[in-house]
Amino acid sequence: MGRRQFLGKTAGALAGIGAVSAIAQTQAANAKAAGKADPKPPNVVLIMVDDLGYHDLSCYGHPAIKTPVLDNLAKDGIRLTSFYSGASVCTPSRMALLTGAYPVRVGWTKGVMGYMIPTSTGLSPKALTMAEVFGGKGYRTGIFGKWHLGERSPFLPQRQGFDEAYYVKSSNNQTDEIWRGDELMEKPFENRLLTEKFTREAIRFIKANKDKPFFLYLPYTAPHFPVQAHPDWKGKSAFGEYGDVVEEMDAGVGEVLATLEAEKLDRNTIVVFLSDNGPQKGQKAQAKPYRGWKWDALEGGTRVPCIIRYTGIIPGGQTSDALIAAIDLLPTLSHACGIDLDAISKGSPVIDGMNVWPTLLGRTDAPHPRNDLLYWHGAKGFHAIRAGDWKLFLKSRDADLKQPGKGPALFNLAEDVEERTDMSDQFPQRVRAMQELADKRLADINRGIIPLGE
Fold it and tell me: What is the pLDDT of residues 150-166, one digit of tens each?
């Protein structure tokens, strides 16, 4: 389904052409105002944080954590309220983000690198990453933060499309090493200083590449446990040490945005902010009003904050409840930057993501392309499907769901955000239709899997 819908229906394709035309006109106007002859393609800054819950930013309703930078980013761009990470744990969610594919397509079955997945394996070099897509079109690419897609040499970021890499190989509770390319830079690192270090590297990268297009991937380790506040931020938040860490991360994003503005790059840079999955149980992170945690398939496990800004192109002050997923970012950003993703991938590997660019622009002359989405339990694989406002659990009613009875469980997310009222008995035809749709999607995935590299 992915590539076919990426190419889109006729109306969607026409809307996309119009969007590209509008982008080109605005870029040309910006370039003329700046005294430049030829506008360069937009830069991309992709910021992913770790285990941040849906509720953990003030612009998403948290009453105590203050995130003024991200609040302003939302005012200047679009805030998504039905955005889903690629999975409910970090390794598959990063696979999905960087490949535009459901993580099962690139070999994931359960767990994370170092827990349920052997560290001898990694994201296959046969998979096409976002860094390879942008790097192949002349972009300078850099990652500064958490990788977690393989620890052996063939699977490291500098061999998966990144020109520059300053990173930890896995989660900050699994490693104490920072690497630059193949060189070990620190052992042990000080966990409370990681946000500052990754921010400094991102700023350096922007300044060094201000005259060429760049793709900057900034996957912060914050606020993943162990939660330890920077000395300059400890005690600053009204929400304890977790709030300190989130508020420092917000300020770090502010430093990156200030650098873009100082270098006169802010109007020609697409900025995306998201979380890799929902909150870790036992931490102070929250997914209100949704139920569930990291690892499970309830809404709280994968519905996460996402904010996108492209000044002068994406209208500011928008909030959208359209169904959008992390797998949609690769085709959407490629389109926005004038990259023909289909010509690059040539159908292999398959991309499940869809181009949602017209939706981000607030266009109403074409239907939103995504109508359904599969959910992945962190330890148990496929678990549920959403179609429109309806969500169907097809696996056993386990401890996470806490539903009595047997068989599928059906919920109306528009009326039941906590997924507590099972409506499967009232709507048996809907259950059958969603079951058939899930079977179809899974059969399509099973025809095009790239195994993990070994």
Answer: 999 999 999 999 999 99
